[in-house]
Specification:
The chain is mainly β. It contains two helices and 26 strands.
Length: 325
């Protein structure tokens, strides 16, 4: 075997190792997210990311759970959309009510400054003071019209907020006429930063803040954008494709989380699919119910909390989550 053949064999072995799956077999997904060669992609494939514990059902009597968000005080916030409630799981394991007047809040995020940011599906993005419960409206309209139904959000290093605005629970016809991504600058100015998308849902940033990921719910192709500057996106492209249930070709993702190495955890119809930062599919973690959203938290940042229809679940993972800005 010559040197070139030996290198090719090693590269192939690494690529195969990166495609081990929890719960089922799969093939690697090639992505247009990077201009790197296939050899360099394989050489930088991530370790197998598999649960290090069993999946635990924390509680299961909710209407529809969403928006898990971990804070520095070892609490998990999450939402029950139909009941318009934000719940909080304390470090003592007890679940309480933060507010039962959340205007059908969906996605949540606890910023580094301690504010609880929330996407109200009734038409606005807000911030809570978790100590007092006081709420401040950050954005409620664009071009004189209310938003459709803000869904999920992420904050950048400058303190600006990207959020998705699809059709779920929105008035008809859609107030914004399109389903898009918006940016709230620290000045309060709101800009639309994407075109019309197929139900943009989950959203996240790479660890270096240079790539914005958007997870549509009505197509298999997940999207990535270059962040040229705060609120300025370019180079929309397909980052990866999520796996499909039998007989389907157009199911998408819902929520997402990012770990410290830049791997993406996407909730899909099949479970939580993990992709490397190069768009290579690494793992599927399955749950008793279809997941809606996911975050990485817990004392070491390695507990994956998943909101899945009526239930809240947790499972330990090998890598900690990326802390919010």
């Amino acid at each position: 075997m010559n040197v070139r053949s030996l290198l090719l064999s090693v590269t192939t072995a690494v690529a195969v190792a990166s495609c081990v799956t929890v719960g089922w077999s799969q093939t690697a997904v090639t992505s247009a997210a990077s201009g790197k060669t296939e050899e360099s992609k394989s050489a930088t494939s991530k370790q197998l990311i598999a649960p290090t514990s069993a999946v635990v059902k924390i509680r299961g009597d909710f209407a529809f759970t969403e928006g898990p968000a971990w804070d520095s005080k070892k609490r998990l916030y999450f939402t029950d959309i139909p009941n318009s409630t934000i719940h909080v799981l304390g470090h003592d394991g007890k679940i309480g009510v933060f507010t039962d007047q959340s205007n059908h809040t969906n996605g949540l995020l606890v910023a580094a400054d301690g504010r609880l940011l929330a996407c109200e599906m009734d038409g606005q993005v807000v911030a809570y003071d978790t100590a007092t419960g006081n709420k401040t409206v950050l954005a409620s309209e664009y071009n004189g019209q209310r938003f459709n139904a803000p869904n999920d959000l992420v904050i950048d290093r400058q303190g600006g907020i990207y959020f998705t605005d699809p059709l779920f629970r929105a008035p008809k016809p859609l107030p914004q006429t399109v389903q898009a991504v918006y940016y709230i600058a620290t000045s309060g100015v709101v800009t639309r930063v994407s075109g019309d998308l197929a139900a943009p849902n989950g959203i996240g940033l790479s660890p270096d803040g240079k790539t914005l990921y958007v997870i549509p719910s009505q197509q298999a192709e997940m999207l990535a954008f270059d962040v040229q500057s705060p609120g300025k996106l370019a180079n929309q492209r397909v980052f990866c494709k999520v796996s499909q249930p039998a007989g389907r070709t157009d199911t998408g993702g819902d929520g997402m989380a990012v770990d410290v190495e830049g791997n993406l955890y996407l909730t899909t119809h099949l479970g939580v699919e993990v992709f490397s930062d190069l768009g290579q599919r690494i793992t599927l973690v399955e749950f008793p119910e279809q997941p809606a959203n996911v975050t990485l938290g817990g004392p070491a940042g390695k507990t994956m909390y998943v909101t899945a229809r009526t239930g809240l679940y947790s499972v330990e993972m090998p890598l900690p989550g990326l802390k919010p800005n």
